[in-house]
Amino acid sequence: MNVEPGNALLTVTEVRKAFGGVQAVADCSLSVGAGEVCGLIGPNGAGKSTVVGLVSGSVRPDGGRVWFDGVDVTTWRPNQRARRGLLRTFQISQAWPRLTVIENVMVAAPGTDGESLLAVLFRRPAMLRKERERWQSAEAILEQFGLIQLRDSPAGILSGGQKRLLELARITMGGAKLALLDEPMAGISPALRTAVLDQVRSLQASGVAFLVVEHDLGVVAELCSRVVVMALGRVLSVGTLEELRQRQDVVDAYLGVSNQ
Amino acid sequence: MSAVVALLAAALMYVIIYAILSIGLNLQYGVTGVVNFTYYSFVAIGAFIAGVTSLGHPPAGSGETYILGWTLPFPIPIVAAAIAAGFFGGLLALTAFRRLRSDYLAITTLCAGTVAFDIVNNTTGLFNGPNGIYGVATPLSGQLNVPPQNNFLIMIPIGAVLLAGVWWLAHCIDLSPYGRSLRAVRESRDAAEAFGKDTFWLQLKVMVLGCVIAGIGGALTVEFVGAFNPSAFETVETFVVFSAVILGGPGNNLGVVLGAVLVQGIIIQGSLYLPAFANQELVPAIRNSVIGLLVILVLYFRPQGLVPETRPRIGLMRGRTGSGHSSTPSESAEVEV
Amino acid sequence: MSFFIQAIGFGLVTAAVLALAGVGLTLQFGVTNYANFAYGDMMTLGVYLTWVFFAIAHLTFVLALLLALVCMAAICVATAEVIMRPFVLRGSPPLILLIVTFGVSLILNSIILAIWGAGSEAFQLPGTQPLDLGPFLLTPLQLLIIGTSVAAMFVVHLLLTRTSMGKRMRAVSDNRELARVSGISPTPVIRATWALTGVLATLGGVALAVDASQFSPGLGEGFLFAIFAVVILGGVGKPYGAMLGALVVGVVTEVIGLWIPQYKLDVAFVVLIVVLLFRPEGLIRSAGKA
After folding, report:
1. Whether A22 contacts chain C with CB within 8 A
2. Which of B114, B286, B300 lies closest to C114 in CB terms?
3. Subunit partners of chain B (3 or more CB pairs within 8 A)
4. pLDDT-derived band of residue B314, with 50, 70 and 90 as boundaries?
5. What are the start-end ranges of the H helices in chain B?
6. Which among A67, A158, B275, C19 has most CB atoms closer than 10 A?
7. Exposed/middle/buried for residue C178 (C-beta within 10 Å: 0-12, 13-18, 19+)
8. B321 pLDDT band (50/70/90 cuts)?
9. CA distance A190 to A161
10. Is it the case that residue C198 has pLDDT exceeding 80?
11. pLDDT tens digit sequence for C70-121
């Protein structure tokens, strides 16, 4: 596939990663344009989770490069990538269970103002002003995500679906340019499923791009304009879901199996 | 009568020192989830440094040897103790925090503690080897003309002021974005990292801060007792501070201070007055197993401790939010987590 | 030069002790997936039990040791079942499990102090006269320690490779989820591992006490950091790695001890830090717990 680094928001070129003797990702190149929702599918063991790690920065590639927002971020740590606007959700929701719901959103605010002793002790007025702004935007976001009634509850008591919404709320607060969703529909109730879909769409409308790893092809069909198929650590094909359904190798590798 | 007062005053002083230590350890373990199994080594560093920066040179012919031998006026030895403990805390953190698993951190700190003990014990030129330092004068006792047996008259006010300062510091951190991010690191390091938090740096800073507080506690100890030797910082001492934090309520300053009162004020000070029977190890041994057992039982039946961590509903916004959402109950209410 | 070679000889003795203790600790760490800070005190308890059967009950040394091995296997399994298992079942985070083992360490140490006091004891075995063995100068007891360790390592090897329980132990240690999916129930494996850990802790403790010619309640705790260095050097959960790690740490500490005898064991800590900084997965690189 042809990728031109710098053109798209996220560009991954020929990354590979082995764990011990196992080649989890042999060769993967993909790109996500600004404001685009791109799907990443493939059978179990295709290397999707590793790609998520490689893009978010928790996994360091053995080779290949990752560009984000015009810079080479291959050697950046996850927190550095996050500060540039690359945020993610986790396969198993990672809310901070003993912080309240609104605190969960406030932690995600960009910048690290007030996170030092100096600020705590000597710059209180500035810190308080910043906190007030954070509080207000966090409340507005909770309102938007329908979580406002739970504002002061510890996040640990939320249901699976509510935790997903909270993760999306954090992404909104964090000012994501690109959000990496790792199986966003895993273990959530049908009612909240619609809510999650709606929120992703409205975030997209506001200009956030998504890379969505998902098993449920219905969700992929609804959200993604373009889909990347992986198998055995390699990118098999790229296209719309409709185009991919026509391709025999893709169907053999994945679609056929899951459509049975 | 005055003997009873002196005993009670000594008990109070120990409680104050332990309250300070508990707040420091709570910042590391309770707030950030950093397991520092050699916390008391930093108390020892503080004690030794406060000692050798105020003792002056060892008297000729005494056979004592230790470094520095300065005679700095109060409160500089306490500051020096805090800086030294914080420096070594940072050094340990720089190596230990490079690996993600909390086991490795705990293992490294424990091993560092054993080695620190060996080095202090075997190097007579450092802090006078196994005999340790002694004869440390109470600060200001000359100027105020207070006899040594009544030195609590000086030390309790100094300790109380330092405790208040440390408490206030911890309280400010609790209510700030800093405290919130530290808790996020504790709950899920990966998620904190994924939202732009430099977890290594956050943990490093809290390690240094906690050790600075340990150093202050150590300085107070040596200035109150007048002596400190390696046998005073075995692993069990660290566990005693952990027990105060765990019993009282990790993450809650009021809780850990209550824990210090319970463990130091009641269990340890109380056991000093039990008659020794069989061998002299028996009473402390029984006391320590009671502490160990209490900690295990509390971790199982009430992991949140006596006073659970509370998260501010409004936090720093108390009474200041303009949004005034209709569901806001009483503004000062706090939520139990 | 001859000093140097003699130091290597002493290094082999230290390595033999470290291998016994290290394999026990690494197996348990690998299978249960949490570090055990009570391990040093488990070693010490094993030593005191052996001493009670030997010096007080006047059994032969071998019989006393065997009895102590059985007792410690039972005590370790009981500790794991009564104290650790409830926390594991509830899914307590590793943080909590570490503190619990730290608490168990305090309790075991207090029990030892309460029963036997803080003084030093000794086995007073014969065979402390050094023999001139070519370049090495070792006592019969030290040779016995090396022999016992080699034999024990061979038995552990057979156990892990030839028996079904041993194979299951390795499977659970490598990847518990995979082992569960393949139909291996972890509970009996964990129990068997704790029993083996009790046996190896006792053997390691007695070897240490015999080598040092005396022991006190702080015996195991003071040595624990060297054992952790061995475990991490070898890679957590890798018994063969621990054997290799023991050899490295044993020889390195004794050789460097030629120059700084009073700090020789502290060299193990330097080894630990170097490994953590540069090769956290241990000497043997393979997919495992990093």
Report:
1. yes
2. B286
3. A, C
4. low
5. 2-25, 39-52, 76-96, 102-122, 124-127, 141-144, 152-175, 177-187, 189-194, 199-225, 235-248, 253-260, 269-271, 282-301
6. C19
7. exposed
8. very low
9. 9
10. yes
11. 999 999 999 999 999 999 999 888 889 999 999 999 999 999 999 999 899 9
The pLDDT-based confidence of A255 (bands split at 50, 70, 90) is low
Q: Are A241 and A7 in contact (CB under 8 A)?
A: no
The fraction of chain B above a pLDDT of 70, given in percent, is: 91
Chain C residues near residue A22 by CB distance under 8 angstroms: 287
Cα(B129)–Cα(C76) distance, integer angstroms: 37
- Render the burial of B197-235: b for 16+ CB within 10 Å, e for the rest: bbbbebbbbbbbbbbbbbbbbbbbbbbbbbebbbebbbb
Contact B177 A106 (CB under 8 A): yes
Contacts of A19 in chain C (CB under 8 A): 287
- Helix, strand or coil for residue B227? coil
- In this structure, what token pair is assigned to residue B255? 């809780």
Ordered by where they begin, the domains of chain A are 10-95+158-259 (3.40.50.300)
Q: Is residue B248 within 8 Å of B22, Cβ to Cβ? A: yes
Q: What is the pLDDT of residues B235-245, one digit of tens each?
A: 889 999 999 99
Query: Which residues of B fall within a CB distance of 8 Å from C29?
Result: 103
pLDDT in tens, C3-35: 888 889 999 999 999 999 999 999 999 999 999
Label residue C147 by pLDDT band (50, 70, 90): very high
Are β-strands A10-19 and A63-68 bridged in parallel, bridged antiparallel, or unpaired? antiparallel
- Which residues of C are less than 8 Å from B98 in CB distance? 276-277, 280
DSSP chain C: -HHHHHHHHHHHHHHHHHHHHHHHHHHHHHHH-S--TTHHHHHHHHHHHHHIIIIIS---HHHHHHHHHHHHHHHHHHHIIIIIHHHHHTT--HHHHHHHHHHHHHHHHHHHHHHH-SS-B----S--S-EEETTEEE-HHHHHHHHHHHHHHHHHHHHHHHSHHHHHHHHHHH-HHHHHHTT--HHHHHHHHHHHHHHHHHHHHHHHHHHHS-B-TTHHHHHHHHHHHHHHHH-TT-HHHHHHHHHHHHHHHHHHTTT-GGGGGGHHHHHHHHHHHH-TT-SS-SSS--
Pull the structure tokens for residue A236.
């098999």
Tell me the domain boundaries of chain C: 2-124+165-278
Q: Cα(B30)–Cα(B27) distance, rounded to whole angstroms?
A: 6
- In the structure encoding, which two tokens stand for residue C115, read together? 């029963």
Can you give the pLDDT at residue A209? 95
Amino acid identity of residue B98, one-letter, is R
> Phi and psi at residue A85, in whole multiples of 5°?
110, 20
User: According to the model, what pLDDT value does residue B324 have?
Assistant: 37
Q: What number is the ipTM of this complex?
A: 0.91
The 8-class DSSP code of residue A174 comes to T
Q: Is pLDDT above 50 for A238?
A: yes
Taking the C-alpha atoms of residue B45 and residue B58, their distance in angstroms, rounded to an integer, is 19
pLDDT at C137 over 90: no
* Facing B177 at nearest CB: one of A114, A153, A174: A114
d(CA C4, CA C255): 7
Q: Which residues of C touch B297 (CB under 8 A)?
A: none
Q: Does A122 touch chain C (CB under 8 A)?
A: no
Which of C105, C118, C262 is closest, CB to CB, to B122? C262
- Do the beta carbons of residue A4 and residue A22 sit within 8 Å? no
Residue extents of the structural domains in chain B = 2-232
- What 3-state DSSP class applies to B178? helix
Cβ atoms < 10 Å from Cβ of A84:
17
Q: CB B289 to CB C273 under 8 A? A: no
